[in-house]
Amino acid sequence: MTPEDRDQTAVVSDDDETGSRSSRTRKSHKVKKKHLPLWQETFLLLGIALLLAIVIKALFVQAFYIPSESMEPGLVQNDRILVQKVSYWFGGSPQRGDVVVFKDPGDWLGPQDDAGPSNPMAKVMAKIGLYPQGGHLVKRVIGVEGDVIKCCDKQGRISVNGQPLNEDGYVQDEKGVACRGPMRGDCNWTAGPVPDGHIFVMGDNRAHSADSTVHMCSEEETDCVPGDEFVPVDLVVGKVFVLIWPWDHARWVHRPDTFADVPDAG
Predict the structure, then answer these.
(1) Residue 214 contacts by C-beta under 8 Å, 6 or more apart in sequence?
(2) How do 198-202 and 136-143 pair as beta strands?
(3) Which of 28, 90, 194, 266 has the maximal Cβ count within 10 Å?
């Protein structure tokens, strides 16, 4: 073995020894690394879950319940529903036939309906979208900006921009109700044109729904506010897309086909 060979061997030996020390140091560091205590991890995970729930409620999906019989037969009182908000992003707006949740315009609900949950835990859950809130209504959009809604033709059908609606698939069929019109019992009225930035809404249980038709002004009324029947789009939280509870009739909520035949306003 030449002196050069001995020098090369020594160098290789030093590298191996240094590598071994580095490896032992890394292993030592790994061994010394400690996890958070269980209680700290639990609070951290709860905090993350809470943050996600708030973000989801604010931007994507929120839970509500059906507060009355006004949307029967499809949606029954106390049914739990989910509302999605994405459809109305980037200039999107409610469409005819959508079932929407909207905030009380100011005089549509009584104090009891507007109160929301009374249990402290339920109040907290409602704030983050995990429990239904009060102060909201659920109705179907019948008319949008510029639309004229008329009740009713000889078959008792509502028309939008002159197009009669076939509502057999979702409106409550009740004996003694002369038309598919309002709770007020009048089958001869016209609403609209719907102002810009507003919608005209009705419940599916037409004889038991305090909807836009109830807030219309008749000729003999003196204390009625004209235009109160139209709901500002800004108050719409989102579109109902699924009924999630009770499980035995959980289903997706779709826009009826009949609204596809309605012509544009004007």
Answers:
(1) 182, 183, 184, 229
(2) antiparallel
(3) 194
Q: In this structure, are residues 197 and 233 in contact, taking their beta carbons and an 8 Å threshold? A: yes
CA distance 206 to 204: 5
Of 36 and 105, which is predicted with more confidence?
Answer: 105
Q: How many CB atoms lie within 10 A of CB 253?
A: 17
Q: Is 244 helix (H, G, I), strand (E, B) or coil?
A: strand
Predicted TM-score of the model (pTM): 0.71
CA–CA gap between residue 113 and residue 129 (Å, rounded): 18
Helix/strand/coil percent split, the chain, to 5: 30, 20, 45
**Per the structure block, which two tokens stand in for 92?**
């999107």
Contact indicator for 136, 114 with CB cutoff of 8 Å: no
Give the CATH number of domain 64-261: 2.10.109.10
**Structural domain boundaries of the chain?**
3-34, 64-261
Nearest Cα residue to 143 out of 203, 184, 97, 84: 97
Looking at residue 179, its amino acid is C
| In the predicted structure, residue 127 carries a pLDDT above the cut 80 | no
Q: Active-site residue numbers?
A: 70, 139
Closest of 158, 261, 160, 243 to residue 204, by C-alpha: 158
> Any bridge partners for residue 99, and if so which?
140
Q: How confident is the model over 48-81, as pLDDT tens digits?
A: 555 555 555 555 678 888 888 999 999 998 888 8
